[in-house]
Design a protein that fits this description.
The structure is a single chain. By secondary structure, the chain is of the alpha/beta class. Helix content is about 40%, strand content about 20%. It contains 24 helices and 22 strands. The strands form 4 sheets. Strands 12-13-11-14-15-10-16 form a 7-stranded parallel sheet, sandwiched between helices. The protein has a 6-stranded parallel sheet with strand order 17-22-21-18-20-19, sandwiched between helices. Helix 12 links the parallel strand 12 and strand 13. The radius of gyration is 31 Å and the shape is globular. The two termini are about 25 Å apart.
Length: about 675
């Protein structure tokens, strides 16, 4: 029924169907879910004496006499009359709309909406929106439009669609019990009220219901995804070795790390596969948590795979793990794109044999055709990418292995409930002791010379610095700009220093060489595009300069800043921007004041909306149509609770009362988004 094509709706012919398609409306269901952007509210009209000249307002008045026609010149007619409310009146002029003017009836009451002007001491309104004054018309919907369609037309078509829908409605997709409990209005009332409300309160009630519904469907979908592979046995951890691992560390774990490790261990002991996200700020020490899990698994004879987003990062994780496991019998292996075919084969052979305990590589490498003897744990270092899709990809390599996702991007709780709804969440909200605050400054380009001097002073002490130039895309033009800038720095400012350039177009080998040289001090100043965002731990690097800082989101800046302050020395982050305007300035000010990634993420959400957090469209998460995660936190929580209640009672939505929900979840997570629900 809801898939009914547009042509069956009264008032929609070929031509209008094409126009509607432009608005991404293809079916009856799309049409009735095409919600107004706003409303003209006639439900509380302004009394005439309270009208303010120069403002747009709505008032209610009686047409004093049949509008009088005047031909000003050829093709230009004007109708005039007086609108009366008791002892007050407003002059009405209507240009070139004889149809409207002649439809006005003397003595009848109408709503008028438009700009109020003052002319020789009298209120005047010209070409207003006019509606017959009755409760049906108290709030007029205003739809986002395309050329050739007016709100009025759309409103009519939608009214027709609504009567069709009501005739055939199968009842509400949200079960009665849930609706009652969460105070949601009925679907039919909601559709009526959102398109044809009688007062603002109706709109609120309807909106709340649709927002709730959207978030509910999203969370049901994510939860169903999460439980997809559950119930089947994973390779279970028999004995916990995390204490032994901890004893080997040269430092004390933070409380948050301990909590995260014990959450993992308790998951790993279960026969349902772990599905956990560890979220923590840069430098919060997530790798150690992963390493502890790997350690225990290896001691139990179970293999782990560790996937990193880039080659550089895979190498770094490899180095970290080898160091942490030194002197044990745990065999660690690295598989990267630059390994020769022969070597690759040998590495893979050792994996199948079970000689290797843990393999580290990029997402691509580990998903290709790697086979394992007993893969029990997959760790994905996502950094700041969220891909529902790829998370599952390695899943069929083992017997439903445990999965652990690490994200270095603190994201607001609201968002993680949604984006990571398919995962259990552990937050590491504590940095290891003794970390220094990174001093952050926002300056304009006139400071460059001073900054260069400042950098030199530090380089002379054997320390290192980054200068980041943003590339909007890694395209040729921008790249040339970055290269030229590096050249210029080299020639004009740092001729006595070793400068390296790092960008995304470089081959893995080249990048690795540069990073190695930077880590060893062979290169002391690294001019880089954003590729360093996801990499590399160089304790001697103490200055991070970011050019055109206004081009980055706050969370991105925070990530970049996290590349310094990793050692004992005092570190600095300098944001350079010539951007005018309050917005840009105050964004950069936030960076100077705050070092808490979660707070920064909240700000980012507030300032830029949730788009950034959802990443690219490939994230696999359906786009939100009506819910706004910045404003609807309460509803997010309630709908999450509702989704849990529903699934607790009916884990796979098989009950009759959940039929509607199931269909709706399915259609929300359809093929387009490449997610299959069973
Ligand atoms: P991230 O969470 O950004 O991945 P890492 O795991 O790379 O952080 O840790 C950053 C640095 O902090 C590493 O050098 C690591 O050895 C160190 N580290 C981790 N945990 C602690 C701790 N509890 N105390 C001191 N240093 C720690
Ligand atoms: Mg890390």
């Amino acid at each position: 029924m809801k898939e009914t094509p547009l042509k069956f709706i009264k008032g929609v012919g070929e031509k209008r169907a094409t126009l509607l398609n432009k608005l991404d409306i293809h079916t009856l269901s799309d049409l009735i879910r095409y919600f107004p952007r706003s409303y003209l509210d006639f439900s509380a009209p302004t009394p005439i004496p309270k009208l303010v000249p120069g403002t747009t307002a709505c008032f209610c008045a009686v047409v004093g006499y049949t509008p009088v026609k005047n031909e000003i010149r050829r093709g230009m007619t004007i109708y005039k009359t007086l609108l009366i409310d008791g002892e007050y009146s407003v002059h009405l002029s209507i240009f070139n709309n004889s149809y409207l003017a002649e439809s006005l009836i003397e003595g009848e009451e109408y709503y008028f909406y438009g700009k109020i002007q003052l002319n020789r001491g009298m209120f005047e309104i010209t070409n207003p929106v006019i509606e017959k004054a009755d409760s049906e018309n108290a709030m007029l919907p205003v739809y986002p439009l395309t050329a050739g369609l007016t709100s009025k037309m759309l409103s009519k078509i939608i009214a027709n669609a609504l009567s069709l829908y009501e005739k055939d409605s199968q009842g509400d997709i949200i079960p009665d019990g849930i609706r009652k409990k969460y105070g949601l209005c009925h679907e039919q009332f909601a559709f009526r009220s959102i398109h044809r409300p009688q007062n603002p309160h109706d709109v609120e009630i309807a909106r709340r219901r649709f927002i709730f519904e959207e978030l509910l469907l999203l969370q049901l979908g994510m939860k169903l995804l999460k439980d997809r592979n559950r119930g089947t046995t994973a390779l279970k951890l028999e004995k916990d070795f995390s204490a032994e691992f901890e004893a080997r560390l040269p430092f004390c774990l933070t409380g948050a790390q301990k909590k995260a490790i014990s959450a993992c261990i308790s998951d790993l002991k279960g026969s349902t596969p772990m599905n956990r996200l560890i979220q923590g700020d840069v430098g919060s020490g997530k790798t150690v948590v992963a390493a502890s899990a790997i350690f225990s698994m290896a001691k139990n004879g179970i293999q782990s795979a560790f996937m990193a987003p880039t080659d550089i990062l895979a190498r770094q994780h490899y180095a970290t793990l080898t160091r942490l496991f030194e002197g044990t019998d745990i065999k660690t292996e690295l598989l990267t794109g630059s390994v020769s075919a022969k070597k690759k084969n040998e590495i893979k052979q050792r994996l199948i044999n079970g000689e290797t305990d843990v393999i580290i590589g990029t997402h691509a490498l580990l998903t290709e055709d790697t086979r394992f003897a007993s893969l029990g744990l997959i760790i994905t270092d996502e950094q700041h990418r969220f891909g529902v899709k790829q998370r599952g990809a390695l899943g069929d390599k083992g017997t439903n292995p445990h999965t652990l996702v690490m994200s270095a991007t603190p994201i607001p709780r609201t968002i993680s409930l949604i984006v990571y709804g398919d995962l259990d969440l552990t937050v590491i909200d504590e940095l290891p002791k003794g970390r220094q605050k990174i001093s952050t400054y926002a300056v304009d380009t006139t400071y460059r010379q001073r900054i260069y001097t400042f950098i030199k002073k530090h380089l002379d002490l054997g320390l290192r610095a980054y200068i980041v130039c943003p590339l909007v895309e890694e395209n040729e033009g921008d790249l040339t700009a970055a290269k030229q800038y590096a050249e210029k720095l080299k020639k004009e400012h740092f001729s006595d220093y070793k400068i390296g350039l790092l960008h995304g177009k470089m081959k893995a080998k080249e990048k690795e060489k540069i990073m190695k040289d930077f880590a060893s001090g062979e290169i002391s100043l690294l001019v880089a595009t954003t590729v360093i965002e996801v990499g590399v731990d160089v304790p001697e690097s103490v200055i991070m300069v970011i050019e055109n800082a206004e081009r980055f989101g706050l969370s991105q800046l925070h990530q970049l800043r996290g590349r310094v302050g990793r050692g004992k020395e005092k570190s600095y982050c300098i944001l350079i921007s010539d951007a005018e305007g309050e917005g840009a300035r105050s964004r950069l000010e936030i960076m100077c004041k705050t070092s808490d990634g979660f707070k920064i993420a909240d700000k980012d959400l507030e300032l830029r909306g949730p788009g950034d957090f959802f990443g690219s469209r490939q994230s696999g998460i359906p786009k939100l149509k009506i819910a706004d995660l910045t404003e609807n936190m309460d509803i997010v929580r309630q709908s999450k609770q509702a989704s849990e209640e529903i699934l607790k009672k009916d884990p796979r939505l098989m009950l009759h009362e959940n039929k509607g929900l199931k269909a709706a979840v399915r259609s929300l997570f359809t093929d387009k988004k490449r997610i299959t629900l069973n």
